[in-house]
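Response to reviewer comment R2.3. The reviewers asked that we include at least one raw input/output pair. We reproduce the pair for Glycoside hydrolase subgroup catalytic core protein here without editing.
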Amino acid sequence: MNLYTPGDGKGSFIIDTKISYIHGEPWEITDHNSQSLDIELSIGEAKLHLTHSVFVNTSSNELEFPLHGLAPRFEPYRVTIRANRPDGSHAYSATTDLYHLPERIDGGSITKLDSLYGGLLVQDYTKDSSWSPLLPYSYYVSWDGWLEKSLSNVQIFKDQGYNIIHIVPNAGLANEAFNFTELKMFLDKCDEVGLWVMYDMRWTYQNLTSVQYQVDLLKTHKSLLLWYTGDEPDGQGDPLNATKITYDLIKSLDPWHPVSLCLNCYNFYYEEYASGADIILSDVYPIAVNTSWSTVYDTVCNTTYGCCGCDDCHGDMEDISNRLDIFAEYQSWVGNLPKTFWGVPMAFGNESYWTRYPTAAEEVTMTMLSLNHNAKGIVMWDYPTSNELSNITSKLSQVLASDRIARFFLGAVTVPLRVTGHSKIDVSGWRVEDRMLISILALQMPSWSNAVSIELPGGASVVKEVLWGSGGWKLDKGLLVKEGGHALETDIIVVEFDA
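Raw output as returned:
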């Protein structure tokens, strides 16, 4: 976890020893897969010393440690790791920070970020204090366009099944934020009904005085889930250090909640802007858009010039998955801690670059494609939306916002599964104990009539449940098989494995 609290009895470190050709210290043994490292790990003044052995070129090695010897405090514990070759010929070292924070005494909530799988853990303050995974599924919601019109809209939104709400501030106000008297009533209502809040400071995040005022005003609300600072700071050309400066200030004021921002560009100073957040959102809008000629500016769009509303896109579904994959790759190149990524599916249309709204099938595909490529949250732009999209996303929320399904998406590695029989089907799985959740997406293409098969890990025994879609997938000698299907078909199923 990115932080621990006094109720935690133990924690764990994640040790990665992947071979890198970009950063690190030289490793001169060619047969590195058979090599091991002896690990010595120490925690500052706590005098906690741990030893372990891991193989080279592996990741996600967990080393548990007790927390009882680490007094809760706001200052992080400095952790040093030393990795020695067994023959003693070389040693490698790295450092990190461990946060064991005091309990909150102001009534506010705590959001933990799982550094292994990238998900959020929260306490349901309306029921009990146990920690549960939360897969955010919701919209950016217009404050002045809808929310502030009636306090009952909070309950209406909650009743549609969404588990968080991202409130978009009112740029028309003098403070470029909110009427804070009205906002307090809104947050009190969210506290009451148990609707998590993603708080947006897009217009004010570079005004540090305003940021401090807003954080101090809101940080004790039980419904506060996380902060949101820059909205497309790369596309806006904000100062490269702006997001990090604000991140450091927020963390000094509120260490209990993560900070997020949304990046718009394929790669415009990714490292600098991403350094200012724990969670990076990606808003790729590929539906009904001309990606080669700007209908707004009447200019060409290519890799170096022009704005077509979707940076370096081809106008197909793969734009979404490609962007999430490349962001993860950038983060590995940077060499810092991994980031969590969320998707921002398009839920608007008939404006600027986009000639229509997505269809219901396109909306579901964009959402599930993001999750298939390791997004750990979905916040669509924007609400209110069309009746068609409102209906389908409310229906999908019954699946994605449930605790049972969140435990798959947030409790296991995202595993791409190999497909034969069609090149335009995207499949990923998440296995927890003897069951695997599988998401099967037919991307933009004509319907097909031939047999398609999906390779599963050994031991798959039965299709236990169909959570979404028409089904029709059957197990045959360890393969998921189906004959025929239609464009933009989405199936979410659970497969059981032999014990």
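The chain has three domains: 10-98, 112-409, 415-497. Residues 318-334 form the longest helix (17 residues). Further pairs are available on request from the corresponding author.
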